Amino acid sequence: MSISPNDLLNKNKNLNKRIEISKICLDNVTINDLKFTGDNYEEYINLYSLLENVSACQVSDAYNGISRRSGVIQKIKPINNQKVFGRIFTAETTSDDWGTSAMAIDAANDGDILFFKVDSEDKAIWGELASTCARDNGIKATVIYGSVRDLDALLYMDYPVFASNYCPNAGSALGLGSLNEQLDIDGFKINSGDFFIGDESGIVVIPQEMFAKTMVASLGVKIKESMIIDEITSGSTLSQIVGLGKK
């Protein structure tokens, strides 16, 4: 393995360092800071300090506050209740064709989240073998507007999966789908490069051009909710805090 000048300059960078919520600074953060490039250390650390501490609920609230949209696709639910965030790589196919799943694994970049639109839920396009291959190839998670299978394995795998349904049967390795093109799901436009966060509560998709504003707003939501929890701990009721209590 060759060593670049950047490797030498950044060899002492602690990429696991995290900053307290109250001290996070997002002034210069962009969606590109989801990856450490060698010269974005401060932005990377501040961004991850936030994202590891906010939920899909809080990001949805933040996005709704600046766009009047939730970013939520209601039908897609967590299969194994794991949290993940990152940039999307899109794919579209039919339920007869699990071969496009294998193609997407090969085409996506390290750290991407695969997002599939499938024409029906009649057959599964994803399961244990695909999850194993994707994980070992550096893919962070898989999201399917369609069906998965092999829940006996997926429930215990260290690989997040989200889907709208599940079933035991699958199609064939046809490989006839499309990759890296815009998806239209229930009127929701999703592009490769958009931001995804999912956890036990569900999924949220944020257009990449709205990422920075949404992250700043998410920090605000997190700080506000932390303050509310402190007030409740100190004896106030939720109705009092939101202005519904007795005066």
Describe the protein:
The chain is an alpha/beta fold and about 250 residues long. It has a single domain (about 15-240), classed as 3-Layer(bba) Sandwich (Glucose Oxidase, domain 1). It has helices at about 5-10, 40-50, 55-65, 100-105, 130-135, 150-155, 210-235, 240; strands at about 75-80, 85-95, 115-120, 125, 140-150, 160-165, 180, 185, 190, 195-200, 200-205. Strands 1, 2, 3, 4, 5, 6, 7, 10 and 11 form a nine-stranded mixed β-sheet that branches. The longest helix is centred in the C-terminal third of the chain and has 23 residues, at about 210-235. The model has no long low-confidence stretch (mean pLDDT about 95).
Please identify the top-level CATH class. Answer: Alpha Beta
**Distance, first to last CA:** 69 Å
Tally the helices: what do you get? 8
Domain module tally: 1
CATH superfamily descriptor: Ribonuclease E inhibitor RraA/RraA-like
Helix content: 25-40%
Q: What is the mean pLDDT?
A: 93
What does the largest sheet look like?
9 strands, mixed
**Beta-strand content estimate:** 15-25%
Q: Give a count of the beta strands, DSSP E runs of length 2 or more.
A: 11
CATH topology: Glucose Oxidase, domain 1
**What is the structural class?**
alpha/beta
Tell me, briefly, the overall form: globular
What does the radius of gyration come to? 20 Å
What ranges have pLDDT less than 50 throughout 5 or more consecutive residues?
none
Give, in order, the helices and strands: HHHEEHEEHEHEEEEEEHH
CATH-scheme architecture? 3-Layer(bba) Sandwich
